[in-house]
């Protein structure tokens, strides 16, 4: 487990990212993920810039993006990521019913993924033609 | 690779599922996934009933469910599933810009999942308390 | 893709392993996996010795071991391994009905694995006590 | 972590599933997995019906199915599932020697899966022809 | 499969990235990965900037970074990534003997990862204390 | 969780492996991984012989091999393996800056692996020709 760089121990470079996180998210705290990344300021800065760009409202709304993030995190078995993105999704309006349906889809997709691979199903011509 | 059970070679039990797939989806064909599962009628029937239940409109709309399905399939590296659910998502209105944003979120989630694990980030008390 | 070392191009060291594979398996050919590993004779020899030890009859019979091998290979999405171990399992008596049930279990296990992780289910005291 | 729905807090719909689990398994308790799924009764009911169908005696015996379940769960790194299905397998007669051989096969299969992918081994014509 | 944006069909924004790829790598061509990302110029630009930063010489030399990239790609079963990073590693001096040892380490790590999980090995106090 | 076989409870066969581990590593203790494998002496012996062979200095130096081991372990989400191989890598001279760059490469490789799969990028002719 990496040391967590708290705000009072952070360099100016790290603190600037923490401040941007708090301002962008309109919150008064920084979660542990960033405090761990702060052990390597270039990674902290790069990942934060990436998250700001990729998770911003766009053709997909921010809540949908959080649901997708949860789907990846559950499939990869990342407990931290499930906890943090479930919190983010709830903050963006996800209901418990939506979470339950999300988990059901994730479960079934993992099942049919293995069935498609196990049966060696060839991609249909119509799917290829549509690309 | 499993044999694909075409409609003209299907038993009445299999054919009934094929007909329900076509009626439910308002389409005139059945894609290869189902023709492979038809090698084992109980699995064919069970998976189709599951998909009908889980992918139906609910607290989450059908397009969001397809996006989640793609996220799982890309993370699991299932080419068949990516092809079939990308086609389904497009049929439900997914634009190319939405697909591009979806893939960007999937990519970043896979990156930060590994960073959270690699740094061994402990779950924040606030996330635990919120559950 | 690595070059495949055919028997007529193999060193004495590699050939000795090929001969042992054929003798142990009572067959007249060597499949591509070994011809690829032959690019690095220490790996070829080590993996073959490992397979001979681990897949031999023991507390579990050889067919059960092949079914487990298929389960891992489908979960990892390894097409070569699915093809080769499905062939091995059939040679050891696996029926098509058994293969279908195997794939059904693999699919459901992948689904419930994700549900257990997604819901963050804590291990029951009784399971811990039983260990 | 989801709330666990204990029997005294369960709806009639959930309780009916709990009773069927206990009756089918001839046991007096329900493990946490089901109490977590009970947050979404349609998922609870669907997964229980699926497990009853897929894990029932068939062309494969129930113990073999449990071994396959463990193989998938170890490969997916699902601690809950490893604990619960190891308990189920022991209840169905799995010995410690069988568990040790099972883990050995799982380990080696994961190793050779990566070697087959890393060397890019092409599927042998004989394997394709046999399908 | 996404369309590949060839240089003669690329926008000025995309072309600028292609030119930077060629200049940075001292080569006269752009591989398909970038031509696929060019379907979404913000992703193309972001990933290229990320790769330039992360894969640059630093505390780890560029060849070691390529070996790590191959290890991840083999574990994730990404054929494209194995092909492209094996080519990059060879261009940076990787020998066939080094590749063979790399694949052996990847294989064994995947095996022992599953054994550690399967046996549920607790982290040693000395490892925790050292962090 | 498997029982850990301590030295004072080990058979002569197990003890011989423990002694070889300590002598080879010039250390006075045996970490939990081996104490868990000792539940099945043939696996203990086989894995230790494998590790000795594969992790020995060769065309790749031992530190590079540890970095690759960490990359696989992070991608597979094996906490035990991350802890033990991070300790091994540090003992072989890995600096904190090297660890940070290693984690950055692992993260980015996981991201681009999914992008390559998600976009369905075909392998370039030049990469195929080079093999």
Describe the protein.
By secondary structure, chain A is mainly α. Chain A has two domains: 54 residues, Up-down Bundle (AhpD-like), CATH 1.20.1290.10; 63 residues, AhpD-like (Up-down Bundle), CATH 1.20.1290. The first copy, chain A, is built from seven helices and no strands. The N and C termini of chain A lie far apart (44 Å). Chains in contact: A-B, A-C, A-D, A-E, A-F, B-C, B-D, B-E, B-F, C-D, C-E, C-F, D-E, D-F, E-F. The interface between A and B is large, with 68 and 68 residues.
- Whole-number count of domains of chain A: 2
- Determine the number of helices of chain A (DSSP H or I, runs of at least 4 residues): 7
Q: Which structural class do the helices and strands of chain A define? A: mainly alpha
Reported by name, the CATH topology of the largest domain in chain A is: AhpD-like
């Amino acid at each position: 487990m990496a040391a967590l760089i708290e705000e009072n121990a952070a360099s100016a470079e790290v603190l600037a990212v923490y401040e941007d996180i708090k301002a962008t998210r309109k919150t008064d705290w920084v979660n542990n993920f960033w405090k761990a990344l702060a052990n390597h300021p270039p990674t902290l800065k790069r990942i934060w810039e990436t998250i700001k760009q990729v998770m911003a409202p766009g053709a997909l709304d921010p809540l949908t993006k959080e649901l997708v993030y949860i789907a990846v995190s559950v499939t990869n078995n990342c407990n931290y990521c499930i906890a943090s993105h479930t919190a983010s999704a709830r903050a963006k309006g996800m209901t418990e019913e939506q979470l339950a349906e999300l988990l059901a889809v994730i479960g079934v997709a993992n099942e049919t993924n293995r069935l498609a691979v196990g049966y060696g199903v060839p991609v249909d011509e119509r799917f290829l033609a549509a690309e």
